[in-house]
UniProtKB/TrEMBL annotation:
This is Uncharacterized protein. Belongs to the short-chain dehydrogenases/reductases (SDR) family. It comes from the Eukaryota. Keywords: Oxidoreductase. It holds the Pfam family adh_short. One of its GO terms (molecular function) is oxidoreductase activity. InterPro entries: NAD(P)-bd_dom_sf, SDR_fam. GO terms for cellular component: cytosol.
């Protein structure tokens, strides 16, 4: 069985890092994982967690979901090398933790640009390839926090994630 060519966004920490390592260290080597992050200066935790799978089944690449060229370059690199992308996991996300009335509008725009439009940008980049190959899966990672506001977590984070929920549903 051919390896599933997988692209994951937001792999410098947390869920993205853990998914990349879990898939990349699969004993049957079912996945070839392109683990991406916008800042390669933060790749050390992923390199450490990947261990022997690094550059075998786990590959680290730059990808900033808010930049068209970055998305296009990453997707094209994978398709040029493998002829396909089988699985995309849209995980990249950011949050701001200041109360809305003190949050600069530029920060609000950044949250939406990453958490919602970044997913749209990724989907627009990979869907033509998946349609052409007549296969593929896209998983959009969201958060229950996207629908719940609390005193300790301003609702701003949730705005972009709620949009993602409706895009995915």
């Amino acid at each position: 069985m051919a390896q599933k060519i997988t692209l994951i966004t937001g792999c410098s920490t947390g869920i993205g890092l853990n998914i990349a390592v879990k898939l990349g260290k699969d004993a049957a080597k079912k996945y070839m994982v392109y683990s991406t992050m916008r800042n390669l200066g933060k790749k050390e935790p992923l390199e450490t967690a990947a261990g022997d799978a690094l550059n075998d089944t786990i590959f680290i690449r730059p990808l900033d979901v808010v930049k068209d060229d970055s998305v296009t370059n990453a997707v094209n690199e994978i398709v040029d090398k493998h002829g396909r992308i089988d699985l995309v996991i849209n995980n990249a996300g950011i949050a701001t933790f200041s109360p809305l009335e003190y949050t600069p509008l530029a920060d609000v725009r950044d949250v939406f640009e990453t958490n919602f439009f970044g997913v749209v940008r990724m989907m627009q980049a990979v869907l033509p390839h998946m349609k052409e190959q007549r296969s593929g899966h896209i998983i959009n990672v969201s958060s229950i926090g996207g629908s719940l506001g609390t005193r300790s977590k301003p609702i701003l984070f949730g705005f972009g994630r709620v949009g993602l929920f409706y895009l995915t549903a």
